[in-house]
Write a structure and sequence with these properties.
The chain has 203 residues and is of the alpha+beta class. The chain is built from 8 helices and 7 strands; from the N terminus they run αααββββαββαβααα. It folds into 2 domains: 130 residues, Pnp Oxidase, Chain A (Roll), CATH 2.30.110; 34 residues, no CATH class. Strands 2-1-5-6-7-4-3 form a 7-stranded antiparallel sheet, with helices on one face. The longest helix is centred in the first third of the chain and has 9 residues. It is globular.
Length: 203
């Protein structure tokens, strides 16, 4: 199997249309602001100076990510997780390149932002991000370099919001059961229901 190179892409794909290229902006304008204001979920990606890459989800109440008045800065609160901190370590150890993908439940459209991130633990800023009764651990401050609406085809193909496409959770073991099995550690000592209940206290 011969690997493809850049020249092959021009053979396999048509050039992007004028609108596709021109829709990329250098700031978050009113429609992007409204979209992020309704978004409860985003995915962030990063690359470290040693080539380490990561992608991870973030979630919260609608508008949990804030947009500056001029649309050139985003503020993303970071809350308790598994403490691996892969994305944050990548961002703080290199130039801070970050990619963000915002989603709204029920919407097929996706809003994307690329930029450079730094981090702060400013207590005054934390007061604006109290959620679930808690302040964040830190806040990523993202200088926007590119922002645009993404084609909805992927979400449409996935039927992500279609009730008939939902998979019963019983189709797979719980996350804890799968990890314990992967590491040959036997069965979890507590039930999945107890684990989920404990997570609810850690949001």
């Amino acid at each position: 199997m011969k690997p493809l190179d850049l020249a092959d892409l021009d053979r396999l794909y048509k050039p992007p249309g004028k609108l596709v290229l021109e829709k990329s902006l250098d700031h978050v304008e009113k429609h992007g602001r409204a979209f992020i204001g309704l978004s409860t979920f985003c995915v962030i990606s990063s690359a470290g100076p040693d080539g380490s890459i990561d992608v991870s989800p973030r979630g919260g109440e609608p508008g949990f990510v804030h947009v500056s008045e001029d649309g050139r800065t985003l503020y993303l609160p970071d809350r308790p997780g598994n403490n691996r901190l892969d994305n944050i370590r990548n961002l703080l150890s290199g130039p801070g390149h970050i990619g963000m993908m915002f989603m709204i439940p029920g919407f097929d459209d996706v809003y994307r932002v690329n930029g450079r991130a730094s981090a702060t633990d400013d207590p005054e800023l934390f007061k604006q991000f109290v959620e679930f009764g808690k302040e964040p651990r830190l806040i990523l401050v993202v200088a926007v370099e590119e922002a645009f609406l993404h084609c909805p085809k992927a979400i449409m193909r996935a039927r992500l919001w279609d009730p008939e496409a939902q998979v019963e959770r019983s189709a797979l073991p719980s996350g804890a059961e799968m990890v314990m099995d992967q590491l040959n550690l036997g069965k979890p000592q507590v039930s999945n229901e107890a684990i989920i209940e404990s997570y609810k206290t850690q949001l």
